[in-house]
Write a structure and sequence with these properties.
With about 220 residues, this protein is of the alpha+beta class. The protein folds into two domains: about 140 residues, Glutaredoxin (3-Layer(aba) Sandwich); about 80 residues, Glutaredoxin, CATH 3.40.30.10. It has eight helices and five strands. Strands 1-5-4-2-3 form a five-stranded mixed sheet, sandwiched between helices. It starts with about 35 loop residues before the first strand and ends with a helix.
Length: about 220
């Protein structure tokens, strides 16, 4: 979902041009299937960091979630995967705080499926702390401890860092995938301009990500 589209939560796949080269025909191409960051961002030696930029309320992130979670469970030892929640507007910032508060409590991964389902299947917005605390308490998250984490300096700092990281990667839509501080791709971009079902867009993005991980490993 593009930053400019956040006011209209479209549950359909992004509309892409009918022309374009298939990923299978020659492999990913810079500028078509992915972007190269110039200059690249700082990275940890010996590790390849892969970051999924997402938003709980994004319908495309919801569709992409099962694919990227299955993919992340099979990564080699030199690849580190993490999620970064964007903050494109006011209510998204509140969701971002929820993400980092739950992460600080060690509860984010366990509660994420229920949060996604609540937003995309049950119509809950969860865009204020009262509704969040009530919802999360049913999942075993202590409301008082959640509020404490939500308002903590550490979580505020994490949110600020996430916003700076999004700016550094020049994120203008989600889901997007950053690789090693050097590359950026997404389900929509990885299509190379083809019209594809949304689940296939996700698989294409992961194929491109694997290619970019290899490039980063080989310093290419």
């Amino acid at each position: 979902m593009k930053r400019r589209d956040f006011s209209a939560l479209l549950a359909t796949a992004p509309v892409l041009g009918a022309t374009g080269t298939a990923l299978a025909q020659g492999g990913p191409v810079e500028g078509r299937h992915y972007l190269a960051l110039k200059p690249p961002l700082a990275s940890t030696p010996g590790k390849i960091e892969v970051i999924e930029f997402f938003w709980y309320g994004c319908p495309h992130c919801y569709v992409f979630e099962p694919a990227i979670e299955a993919w992340a469970k099979q990564l080699p030892a030199d690849v580190v995967f993490r999620k970064a929640h964007v903050a494109f507007r006011a209510n998204v910032k509140i969701h971002q705080r929820m993400f980092y508060a739950l992460e600080a409590m060690g509860k984010e991964a366990a509660t994420r499926p229920a949060i996604f389902n609540a937003m995309h299947q049950q119509g809950q917005t969860l865009d204020d702390t009262k509704s969040q605390a009530k919802f999360l308490s049913a999942l075993g998250v202590d409301p008082a401890k959640y509020q404490e984490a939500y308002n903590s300096f550490g979580v505020v700092t994490k949110c600020q860092q996430a916003e700076k990281l999004s700016e550094a990667y020049r994120i203008d839509g989600v889901p997007s995938i950053g690789v090693a501080g050097r590359f950026l791709t997404s389900p929509s971009q990885s299509s190379g301009g083809q019209r594809l079902p949304e689940h296939e867009l996700g698989q294409r993005a992961l194929q491109v990500t694997d290619f970019l991980i290899q490039r980063a490993r080989n310093k290419a």
